[in-house]
């Protein structure tokens, strides 16, 4: 059985024709990805391949975070050309979002902040603690993954966070970390850490604006949930 091309699909299932008739917004995530992939693999149509990719990475947000090695592990993505094309598109998407974050007041677009952090942290297999460093207008200066830990915990050193914020010339920060367990509810340790970092940074006149916890497909803002 050979790979199924988009033109081999029944007319009603062809995403290109659907997009031409209704516009790109009318396509599902699977159809948009299939349009990019163009061909399936042995035993899988292009739509089935797109579906398997989204299932493997828990949706578009997870796929956007996929590493080159992650893509190599997927049946049908072993070819250098297709893997390189998708990796390039994913990296362009990340960079485009980073540019937007650098040009806007992040506190005016909390959903964009959560999505950005999901793309960077949600699918890490171990806990990672990161910091968004912001200027006086709350635009992103940079994002840094600062500490890594085990499946369930990581050690965060306030002194290093303060030093990095001063090095960046930051006026404010947004803290972030992932929960590989899948739950985004903050633990008592998360609450304690947040307060410790708020106190440490306040000494050098840098505000902690939020602490965002992410997991595949979800994110929680401790500010929005009343922890601040």
The gist of it:
The chain has 9 helices and 5 strands. It is an alpha+beta fold and 228 residues long.
* Apparent shape: elongated
Terminus-to-terminus distance: 58 Å
- Series of H and E elements: HHHHHHHEEHEHEE
At CATH's second level, what is the architecture of the largest domain? 3-Layer(aba) Sandwich
Summarize the structure in words.
The protein has helices at about 15-20, 30-35, 45-55, 60-65, 70, 80-105, 110-120, 160-170, 190-200; strands spanning about 130-135, 140-150, 170-180, 205-215, 220. With about 230 residues, it is α+β, with helices and mostly antiparallel strands. The protein folds into two domains: about 5-95, DNA polymerase, domain 1 (Orthogonal Bundle); about 105-220, Cytidine Deaminase, domain 2 (3-Layer(aba) Sandwich). Strands 2-1-3-4-5 form a five-stranded mixed beta sheet. Helix 9 links the parallel strand 3 (about 170-180) and strand 4 (about 205-215). The longest helix is centred in the middle third of the chain and has 24 residues, at about 80-105.
List the topology elements.
Blueprint: H1 15-22, H2 29-37, H3 46-56, H4 60-65, H5 68-72, H6 80-103, H7 110-121, E1 128-134, E2 140-148, H8 158-168, E3 172-178, H9 188-202, E4 207-215, E5 218-221
Parallel strand pairs: 3-4
Antiparallel strand pairs: 1-2, 1-3, 4-5
Key traits:
228 residues, alpha+beta, DNA polymerase, domain 1, Cytidine Deaminase, domain 2, 9 helices, 44% helix
